[in-house]
Design goal:
heterodimer; A: alpha+beta; Alpha-Beta Plaits; two-stranded antiparallel sheet; 6 helices; globular; disordered C terminus; B: alpha/beta; N-terminal domain of TfIIb; Rossmann fold; Dimethylsulfoxide Reductase, domain 2; 4 domains; 7-stranded mixed sheet; 27 strands; 30% helix; binds iron/sulfur cluster
Chain lengths: 167, 685
């Protein structure tokens, strides 16, 4: 079975430094990840979720969008006609219009970097590990393990209800 | 043309992150992350680190020496040749030396140039016969540094960053590392809290980026932190929570300290600082009971009473035994990547490169023997006093990579003073606000255009390598020093053809760096921890068995309350303080030329609490005038709960220093850069 590699967002760790945006901008000319800031100083980085049943991919009339070997929803700029049906279908509003080239632009999990064995740029930069990249189930098992360990140590300290709160 | 990955140290803050500059044909195209070495940053970078290839390529870089043709400060120059520039400077130096003596000349070195370059600025100033030598770092760690030196004999970080992950309590006091040192915050502080269960306490009048992890956030009025620190000492001593064995065996002066703080109860401190007494007690008890990593920075340093505050905090660290072991952390935390490069090469009006005093005859004789020329024995002027004496005692200034027209307190005054100089040389990468007042401007190479040594906040000594050619005729600072020395007839003392040769001389002159040789650092990109007396890892944890004082004990210092020099009154009813943004750097010389940063952090603003905003009829987004006795600025208002009532706060990178106060501490010469009295009013647009 093919692995499904994704960028997992651990909002709790994010400090809103926007290194991810700058790293993406350095790599692609335009940032395809955005950090949203809320009045309580809470910050949430957000990029394409590379959905398993990606609506954008399903509606693309030219086949410009496709799933690559790491499971990323990637695209072929030569096939894109800029109709932005993908943007209509995406539940998160991820695909955007590249004003200059008049085609769609979205996160491709840094296909070029992956081809060289490197991490996606935003993940490489993120100083807090709010962004992590890998096989999604592996990432989630690690997270689950960490949370269970935290629950155990809170229970030992007698702080039952103060246990690590997952966002 | 093939891409070349050149290993470099980050040119911004003092975390000491490593990465690669990707150079193509001597031109830096982008950066690449270093996941290949055991670096402090573990590959990670903050937005400044990522964007650091941008300002290098700015079309605004200085490319030729300039000579002033307009009025001082007008910014009118004509291009001249290096030969002419050196000739003019050498002639002027000679003329001023003959007319007023060498003591009329002052030098500023910099926390933004390499260790080797600082060393050369130091050497040249002494070769010319002046001890008027300082660097803009005077306004950085010069409360904490002298205070910790008085108590522990040395001010540097006690432990490596990895120890922070093992701490049980993280105290962040007047520091904002989530914004000013994000990689350090993410890789060490967050891990201590989120992965290892440490507790965190924040002491700051503002809510900062990291405060969501804090179990307690106490918000003193700016400049009143000393009252809290005194009350914490009072609690720890009166409740007998101090580490009795440690106090007994490793400190002296406890009785005097106890006597000095006996009346500073938390109730008293509450009245001064606006912090509930119960919270002060809570934090004091936590620090006494847990292995504590305590981080302070400019919110603590940049006050006239910062020295007393630093003493109080260092006393607290000592009596709670939070020093000299693993799993704790305290020390100075320089702002810039090379703050330690200046400090450790003795850039100060009273020091030798060895760190000993110019007034110490034996120490001076030792350096004279190594350098081969006579060194003046008088104590020179510090930066603020240099500015005060411009046109009087000081006739000429030579500034390398410093922008005092913006970074020193009371900018309007500084700029008036700069006009009084007979001769000013500024050596920099851009035409800074300060350079506009210069007679001669020399174009310098940037960090990635030269090889050299950097020293990080955790005392890590690392090498950075040349990845690009400087544009036009710009030259590295070390080379400018060498060539100027030759023009001045001092060439025999400055025979260097490569920074390696300078570093080898440092290895033999400054004992603490004996082992940090070019060869060792080339083989070990992760560097060594100074003191690195022999090639090898160096000293990771300081003070394990003894302090660096004469008798090896910590010398506890009695401290008294001291009011800030200016407090709110009827005319100026608010406290004004300032802070930094992750996307900007100091006076923005580099960050405003970095498009990815500039567009994300485009403007300054003033934070005001909703209660105060209502009082002064200010709504979010209004244009307001912020005013102190020194001047006023127009900015947009941000009405927010993230600053406490009674306090307004602005980022300092833009115009903040038009509002600050040039009054200094009599001993440390620290100015009041963080807490002044202000008023605010709405302006019709
Ligand atoms: S994976 Fe690459 S393209 Fe996608 S947001 Fe991150 S840096 Fe941008
Ligand atoms: S780089 Fe990481 S910590 Fe910084 S804003 Fe992006 S996700 Fe958040
Ligand atoms: S944290 Fe400091 S050293 Fe690291 S990338 Fe950012 S500015 Fe550079």
């Amino acid at each position: 079975m093919e692995m499904s590699k994704k960028i997992f967002l651990d909002y709790k760790r994010c400090i809103g430094c926007r290194a991810c945006e700058v790293a993406c901008e350095m790599t692609h000319g335009e940032a395809r990840i955005r950090v949203f800031e809320f009045p309580d100083l809470f910050t949430v980085p957000f990029n394409c979720r590379h959905c398993e049943k990606a609506p954008c991919l399903n509606v693309c009339p030219t086949g410009a969008l496709f799933r690559d070997e790491d499971g990323a929803v990637a695209f072929d700029p030569l096939k894109c006609i800029g109709c932005l049906m993908c943007a209509v279908a995406c539940p998160f509003g991820i695909p955007k219009l590249d004003d200059e080239n008049k085609i769609m632009d979205k996160c491709d999990l840094c296909a070029d970097r992956r081809a060289e064995g490197k991490l996606p740029a935003c993940v490489s930069a993120c100083p807090t590990e709010a962004l992590s990249y890998g096989d999604i189930n592996e990432v989630l098992w690690n997270r689950e393990g960490k949370i269970v360990a935290n629950l155990k140590s809170s229970a030992e300290k007698g702080e039952g209800e103060k246990a690590y709160i997952v966002l | 043309m093939a891409e070349k990955l050149v290993p470099v140290v980050c040119p911004w803050c003092s975390v000491g992150c490593r990465f690669y500059a990707v150079s193509v044909n001597g031109y830096i195209r982008k950066i690449e992350f270093d996941y290949d070495h055991p670096t402090v940053n573990r590959g990670k970078l903050c937005p400044k680190g990522v964007a650091s290839y941008q300002f290098i390529n700015s079309p605004q870089r200085l490319k030729k020496p300039l000579k002033r043709v307009g009025e001082r400060g007008e910014g009118k120059f004509k291009e001249i040749s290096w030969d002419e520039a050196y000739r003019i400077i050498a002639e002027k130096i000679k003329e001023i030396k003959e007319t007023y003596g060498p003591e009329a000349i002052a030098f500023l070195a910099s926390e933004k140039i390499t260790f080797e370059e600082n060393y050369l600025v130091h050497k040249l100033s002494k070769a010319l016969g002046t001890n008027n030598l300082d660097f803009p770092g005077r306004y950085c760690q010069y409360s904490n540094s002298p205070a910790r030196t008085a108590i522990f004999g040395s001010s540097a970080a006690t432990n490596p960053f990895e120890d922070v992950e093992k701490a049980e309590l993280i105290v962040i006091w007047g520091h904002n590392p989530a914004e000013t040192a994000p990689v350090f915050f993410g890789q060490y502080i967050e891990k201590a809290i989120l992965d290892n269960g440490a507790e965190m306490v924040v002491i700051d009048p503002r809510s900062t980026r990291g405060h969501k992890y804090a179990s307690l956030h106490i918000k003193p009025y700016p400049g009143t932190d000393l009252a809290i620190a005194l009350a914490m000492l009072n609690v720890v001593i009166s409740e007998e929570l101090y580490d009795k064995e440690f106090v007994q065996e490793r400190t002296v002066g406890f009785k005097d300290l106890k006597e000095a703080v006996k009346d500073y109860t938390p109730e008293w401190a509450e009245k001064v600082s606006g912090v509930p007494s119960e919270d002060i007690r809570k934090v004091a008890r936590l620090i006494a009971g847990k292995k504590t990593a305590l981080f302070v920075n400019e919110g603590m340093n940049q006050h006239v009473n910062g020295f007393e505050l630093a003493l109080a905090i260092a006393n607290l660290i000592a009596i709670t035994g939070n020093i000299g072991k693993e799993g704790v952390w305290s020390g100075v935390f320089p702002g810039a990547q090379c703050g330690f490069c200046a400090a450790m090469s003795g850039i100060a009006p009273n020091k030798l490169p060895t760190g000993k005093l110019v007034t110490d005859d034996a120490a001076r004789a030792e350096v004279e023997r190594l350098w081969g020329f006579e060194i003046p024995d008088w104590v020179g002027l510090d930066l603020t006093n240099m500015i005060k004496e411009m046109g009087a005692k000081i006739r000429m200034m030579y500034i390398v990579g410093g922008n005092i027209a913006k970074s020193a307190p009371n900018s309007r005054w500084v700029r008036e003073q700069l006009k009084k100089l007979e001769f000013l040389v500024v050596q920099d990468i851009f035409l800074t606000e300060t350079a506009e007042y210069a007679d001669i401007v020399l174009p310098a190479a940037t960090w990635f255009e030269k090889t050299g040594t950097a020293i990080s906040a955790e005392r890590r000594v690392q090498r950075t390598y040349k990845a690009a050619e400087a544009p036009g005729e710009a030259k590295p600072d070390w080379l400018i020093m060498v060539e100027l020395a030759k023009e001045l007839g001092l060439g025999e003392f400055f025979k260097y053809e490569h920074p390696d040769e300078i570093l080898r001389e440092i290895n033999s002159v400054i004992p603490l760096f004996k082992g940090a040789t070019p060869e060792y650092l080339a083989e070990h990109p992760e560097g060594c921890f100074f003191p690195c007396s022999e090639p090898g890892e160096g000293t990771k944890v300081l003070f394990k068995s003894a302090f660096k004082t004469s008798d090896g004990k910590a010398h506890l210092q009695p401290v008294k309350w001291r009011e800030p020099p200016e407090m709110p009154d009827e005319e100026y009813p608010l406290w004004l303080t300032n802070f930094r943004l992750v996307g900007h750097w100091h006076t923005m010389t580099m960050s405003e030329k970095s498009p990815s940063l500039e567009k994300r952090w485009p403007d300054e603003y003033v934070m005001i609490n909703p209660i105060d905003a209502e009082k002064y009829g200010i709504r979010n987004g209004d244009l307001v005038k912020v005013e102190t006795r020194r001047g006023s600025v127009l900015v947009k208002a941000e009405v927010t709960e993230h600053v406490r009532e009674g306090v307004i706060a602005m980022p300092w990178h833009w115009q903040m220093n038009f509002l600050t106060l040039n009054e200094t501490h009599e001993k440390t010469k620290m100015a009041e850069l963080k807490a002044v009295a202000a008023r605010i009013s709405r302006v019709e647009e």
